[in-house]
Amino acid sequence: MFSLPATWKNCRTVEETWSGEADTDRGEETVERGPAIRIVNPRSSESDQYEDISIMIFTHRQWKSLQEGNFFVSAASIGPGELDRNAKYVFAEPPRMINPDLEGAEELIKIMHSNPLHAF
């Protein structure tokens, strides 16, 4: 369950996929994949983009492997941040999820600091 403020009423979700890559003898190679969800800010439009919420979903095995440095999901120097977990999955926000140049960035920071995700 994800708790959002009233300003996010009528938001929509988009299913996506994350990819994890590892350095190999042949260069970078995709070694892991998993689902991701993007919650689209309902105030976004073609001409006025607002910040969305992205959530990456990992199995516990994938999360452990990521933490051990066996693969990476971004060129950022930090990895994803764990939001919550349940018996099967770890839910995380991507590195550098918030773009301060988009409308709604400050609101999104407040939302994410309120621990809005409660996995069950």
Rg result: 15 Å
Sheet-strand content, in percent, reads: 35-45%
Question: What class, by secondary structure content?
Answer: mainly beta
Name the average pLDDT.
Answer: 90
Helix coverage percent: 10-25%
Please give the largest β-sheet.
5 strands, antiparallel
Q: State the end-to-end distance.
A: 8 Å
- Strand arrangement across the biggest beta sheet: 1-2-3-5-4
Work out the helix count. Answer: 2
Q: Can you tell me the number of structural domains? A: 1
* Net shape: globular
Low-confidence stretches: none
Order of helices and strands: EEEHEEH
Number of strands: 5
Describe this structure in words.
- The chain is mostly beta strands.
- It has one domain.
- It has two helices and five strands.
- Strands 1-2-3-5-4 form a five-stranded antiparallel β-sheet, with helices on one face.
- β1 (12-24) and β2 form a beta hairpin.
- The longest helix has 9 residues, at 105-113.
- The chain is globular, with a radius of gyration of 15 Å.
